Amino acid sequence: MRPFTLFLVITSFLLGLLILLPISALLLATNPLELFAIATNPEVLQALWITLASSFLALPAIFLLGLPSAYLISRCRSRLRHGLETLLELPMVMPPIVAGLALLLAFGRQGLAGGLLAELGLRIPFTLLAVVIAILFVVTPYFVRRCALLFDTIDRSLEEAALLLGASEFQTFIHLSLPLVRRGLTAEAIMALAQGIGLFGTIILFAGNLPGRTQTLSLAIYSAFEADPQEAFALGSLLLLISLLLLTIVKFIAPKEQRI
To answer: What is the rounded CA–CA span in Å between residue 229 and residue 236?
Structure first.
């Protein structure tokens, strides 16, 4: 075996070990009976419901805001695209706890928009809506970046032909561009759900860790670890299996998009 090939094999093996060792340790720390018992616990089911509900509620807003933005970025010239992508990357590089603090300062009672919202009778922090907004703030930039790459794969001549035949830009976007990347968009929707389900730092500061109101599975793991580590391991395994299921679905869908 050539030295460079050997180097590639060794580093890939070490990376695989780095990924698989912690995952295996977590799964081995929980037996199936414990996993079943924790999955049927009413408090855990409540946290699971809040986790799934908030992620699914955020998804339409992610699409509504993210798809047009992704298409705009994809069709912009290099300099403008660079500026838009830099703005988009700010939430991506922001530490989650800082993102939660920023949301609290923006939408809290004394925040930039909090006073106006309070006058309208709308209180966001420490509610389910806060969980949804936290997911929207953190996940949407990733969604936009990935969808912009999807739109990059479209042959521009097809869109130009549609415009020449009399279609409006909106009609071209709806009836041509979106169908061409539909499989990829389905995969990105599932990825957005998976990211929302695993969110922690931003939610705990902006929405709190209130059982039955804002406590997601990630927050339930955090609470359980202080009182009963074994329960936290079981909850972690449950969340890992959910994420693995979503990732498997993505892998079945996404590769077909490359055939465009």
So the answer is: 10
2, 10 contact by CB (below 8 A):
no
Answer left, alpha or beta for residue 211, where phi above 0 means left and psi between -120 and 50 means alpha.
beta
**Stretch 156-164: mean pLDDT, rounded?**
91
To the question of pTM greater than 0.85 for the whole model, the response is yes
Report yes or no: 62 and 139 within 8 Å, Cβ to Cβ: yes
Residue 3: CA count within 13 A, CB half-sphere:
0
What value does the mean pLDDT take over residues 214-228? 91
Helices (H) and strands (E) in the chain, counts: 14, 0
Distance CA 17, CA 11 (A): 10
CA end-to-end span of the chain = 37
The Cα–Cα gap between 191 and 249 comes to 9
Please give the Cα distance from 66 to 139 (Å, whole number).
10
Interval 8-43: pLDDT, tens = 999 999 999 999 999 999 989 888 888 888 888 899
Question: DSSP secondary-structure letter at 209?
Answer: -
> Would you kindly state where each structural domain of the chain is located, as residue ranges?
31-257
Task: Return the CATH number of 31-257, one of 3.40.50.410, 3.40.50.11930, 1.10.3720.10, 3.90.76.10.
Answer: 1.10.3720.10
